[in-house]
Amino acid sequence: MDPVNVINLVLAGVLTGLVYGLMALGLSVIFGVVRVVNFAHGEMMTIAMYAAVVLFATLGLDPFLAVLPVAAVFFALGYALQAGLINPFITRPEHSQFMLLVAVALIMVNALLIAFGPSARSVQLDYLLESIEVGPLLLDRGKVLAALVALATSALLFAFFKLTRTGKAIRACADNYLGAKVVGLDVKHLYALTFGLGSACVAVAGCMMVLLVDVTPVLGPAYTLLAFVIVIVGGLGSMTGALLGGVLIGVSEALAGLFITPSAKSMFSFGLLILVLLLRPQGLLGKKT
Amino acid sequence: MNRAHALLALLVACLAALPLVANSYVLSVATLILFFAFAGQAWNVMMGFAGQLSLGHSLYVGVGAYAAAGLYFHYGLGAWAGIWLAIALCVLLGAAIGFLAFRFGISGVYFALLTIAFAEFTRIGFDHIDWLGGPGGLFIKVEHRVGWDLVNLRGAPAMFYYVMLALTAAAFALCAGLLRSRAGYYWQAIRENEEAAQALGINTFRWKMLAVVISAAMTAVAGVFFAFYYNNLFPEQIFHISRSIEIILGPIIGGLGTLFGPILGAAVLTVLADGITELLAALGWEFPGVKQVFYGIVLLAVIMFLPHGIWPALARKLGVGR
């Protein structure tokens, strides 16, 4: 086994992992604030991927440009979903919220199946396949750009939560629901805003993901599980944890494909999940509750 | 005999007489309803009674099914032997998962995700067990579709129906007994407020373990039935998370923690799914996915407007207790 090859694979895993991380970041932000586990997360991701494919096929829009309109639409849809459907469930038991989102996920994935059929779609752009040479290493240009966009989006989100008044208010809701209400914050609006932001993250991640893989409707449930694995490993509710978890899973998938068999790669991820849950249930970077 | 008992007796009599009047299609739908009623009842012990949300019950269905089917396939040992292996394996698995989760203080969402992780881990693992067919599936020989070989669980569709009816009735009786036992009251205390239950001196670890083990054992039996009824097993299908969700929809729609909820929920969902299929066929809208979209919308409506399920509302109308 050539060590340069292994390093190339690890780097590719890191780049894909950053896109995974952005997807999981959306889930983590939503859970951290709204305390609802979004079981439709992967399905939303798949919808974003199809949106990018359709925009490319009909208008010839490059996914790097499609990111902006898709993210804007997803923000609005996420806001509406939280305000209309999930807010009334905030005080309901966990299993009720879970069933609600399972129903939403079921509708989403099958609506995609009706609209696009089961066959795979992709975006074909010549420049994506060019490689960048760094010494002996080879990097896919598409992967590098996708990872950069994912990093930039995460940085924006961090800045929003750290620097703006609205970001602070949202963190206040996450820390103390009752306290936030007492000081006069419009918690329901802030929850909807958070869900919108989480959805926008997924939209960006989806537009980037079509550069890396072909999209089919069944990816939805698989990505939901993947996002769960990543956020639990990184720490549910922790933003840096989601990115770290994404990179870890990206690299472990790449290496499992090399050292074991490619079909066992997600078994490795689930094994990691079980270990983390047992040894450090709050996740690698999560805070103890 | 009160009104509830009279209605129950009437229901059992109708179900027992069904194969005399029903055609094979109705019988297959009824068998499916009973299967989901039974599996839902099993899941309900863990979630409905003891408040532990499992989203990975496909694990026990799959392991139970593969254990019995493997014994039959390789050694010709029928369901009479396989059922014990299935129960033993699932009890061990359930105890292991429960022990790890409860000892390490994992609860709520984290517990649910842990159960998914174990089911998915096992699903991918079974894809790599060639002895049990791997991803290509395990097929049991279909020998005779007449006659009644109860010991080996081979025979006519009506036999499978009666087996499932007996299992569902037994599960109902077991759960009714459990609910009125010491364990049942402890479980409900844990479900409502675990810390308070602990403060009252209930060993919550022990009783939660008992709920998981009973639930796993019952689900293993469902798995054995599944193997011999359908005669083919694929890891992709039997361990899939959608199988777990199918199992838990019935009790949630019917009424969590109630005895009739799982049965009513299974009946409503199965009839609904078949009704939608028929309706779509009549309309000529048989595209893949249309059925599931309708299913999702109905589910959404029930969760939004009947948060406690159908049975509590219906029980009040019928004038019987929960």
Report on the architecture of this protein.
The complex is a heterodimer of chains A (289) and B (322). Chain A is mostly helical and 289 residues long. Chain A has one domain (15-218). Chain A has helices at residues 3-34, 41-59, 63-86, 94-116, 141-163, 165-175, 177-182, 187-209, 219-234, 239-259, 265-279, and strands spanning 131-134, 137-140. In chain A, strands 1-2 form a two-stranded antiparallel sheet. In chain A, helix 1 runs parallel beside helix 5 (141-163), helix 3 packs antiparallel against helix 8 and helix 5 crosses helix 6. Chain A is globular, with a radius of gyration of 19 Å. With 322 residues, chain B is mainly α. Chain B has a domain at 24-240. Helix content of chain B is 75%, strand content 2%. In chain B, the strands form two sheets. In chain B, strands 1-4 form a two-stranded antiparallel sheet. A two-stranded antiparallel ribbon of chain B has the order 2-3. In chain B, helix 1 (3-21) packs antiparallel against helix 6 and helix 4 (79-103) packs antiparallel against helix 9. Chain B is globular. In chain B, 46% of the residues are buried.
